[in-house]
């Protein structure tokens, strides 16, 4: 199941809006990452432990990418939304992926694509090596 991206679900309408915002943000992120030389391997990787938005290769490094999109009126920055608990969850999912694909010796990192101002005037920031793995 796809996770909601921020906000609260009030009467069901917010869920769809947040999912649409997240999906649009992921499309923008993929295009931007490709322009920066990332080779996209997997989008929305899911396993029993959770989901990672994008898995890519960049300069010989396997990159697990979390996309955080925020609307123009949202006061919480995309970077602040990546809590230690979320980092731990992403680390567990990445480790699962590495084990499943026999890549545990691969050089890897976690990047974040932070997007503000959705959907009108999105501003993208790629934060390479945004956090260390906690698996």
Can you count the beta strands? 5
Question: What structural class do you assign from the helix and strand content?
Answer: alpha+beta
Supply the CATH class: Alpha Beta
Low-pLDDT stretches are 1-14
At CATH level 2, the architecture is 3-Layer(aba) Sandwich
Gyration radius (Cα, Å) is 14 Å
Beta-strand content estimate: 35-45%
- The shape is globular
Q: What is the straight-line distance between the termini?
A: 22 Å
- What oligomeric arrangement do these chains adopt? single chain
Mean pLDDT: 83
Strand count, sense and barrel status of the largest sheet are: 5 strands, mixed
Number of domains: 1
**Series of secondary-structure elements, N-terminal to C-terminal:** HEEEHEE
Order of adjacent strands in the largest pleated sheet: 1-2-3-4-5
Task: Write the CATH fold name.
Answer: Trna Endonuclease, Chain: A, domain 1
Q: Helical region count?
A: 2
Portion in helices:
25-40%
Mind sketching the topology for me?
Elements: H1 13-35, E1 39-47, E2 50-58, E3 61-71, H2 84-100, E4 108-118, E5 123-131
Parallel strand pairs: 3-4
Antiparallel strand pairs: 1-2, 2-3, 4-5
Characterization of this structure:
With 135 residues, the protein is α+β, with helices and mostly antiparallel strands. It has one domain (13-131): 3-Layer(aba) Sandwich (Trna Endonuclease, Chain: A, domain 1), CATH 3.40.1350.10. The protein is 30% helix and 36% strand. The protein has a five-stranded mixed sheet, with helices on both faces. The protein is globular. Mean pLDDT is 83; it is low at 1-14.
